[in-house]
Amino acid sequence: MPSLSALRAFEATARLGSVTAAANELSVTHGAVSRQLRSLEEHFGVALFTKAGRGLQLTSHGERLQHGVGEAFLRLRDSCAQLKRDVEAAPFILACPGSLLARWLIPRLDQLHRALPELKLHVVASESEATPGRDEVSATLTFAEPPWPADLEVIELAAEHIGAVVSPQLAARFDPQRPATLFDAKLLHTASRPQAWPHWARAHALDSARLDRALAEGQGFDHLYYLIEAAVAGLGVAIAPRLLVEDELRQGRLIAPWGFVETPARLCLWLSPTDNRGYRARLIEWLERELNDTLSSR
């Protein structure tokens, strides 16, 4: 088989009747098309074109080749165009943890639909880090720590800040100047964030052995969403990302007596490098703007 680029140059020249026109269509030089045609004639050992005035005319060998090649490239164009239409029409599947979905994204979905009406968004809850391009998702919005997956495009949207939060009624029992007073209450924790309490405790120079005992005697929850609701209900002291308790803090339903600390994790959008739908950039801009509005309202 000759090279595909040579056949492509031949098909365009045969269809348009001109090397110059073929070069313009293929966005290459006149000389590049001429070299491809010459290599094709050398491959077959026959002439494929003859001059006809200022243009070119196919020889009988060229006509035979053009019949098959023209049909093949037409089918290729149709297949590529159909695939492009299918991809553009397919829903954009965004995976994110259920707590992030319920507490931050869902309240803003209507705004997102108004900002990007062409985005056929389908949101799924995923506690694991679903991989775009695989796992049947287009993108993943998640808190994660580097290193990032080498085969994905990772957009860092915001740093994660975590803090111990309590109901206003329970907050009266603690000394804002002494974080160790939180051990006077039950600690609430979740298996989905096992590193959160130890990281926050180290930042406040709390005794790790005492923390381990308090966690063993505390209350565990399957999901961060339930953990935050338990804190609002006054069941104990919870550890949570500030982004997910911002509304409760603003409304006074929760208090962070000892503030928040930054962790190595980032809120990221993971994308497949091969998914180049036009609204991707606008989705990233929307997420960055909404996150900035949320975090700047402190």
From TrEMBL:
The organism's taxonomic lineage, starting at the top: Bacteria, Pseudomonadati, Pseudomonadota, Gammaproteobacteria, Oceanospirillales
Annotated HTH lysR-type domain residues: 2-59
Family: Belongs to the LysR transcriptional regulatory family.
Protein name: LysR family transcriptional regulator
Keywords: DNA-binding, Transcription, Transcription regulation
Matches recorded under InterPro entries: LysR-type_TF_proteobact-type, LysR_HTH_N, LysR_subst-bd, WH-like_DNA-bd_sf, WH_DNA-bd_sf
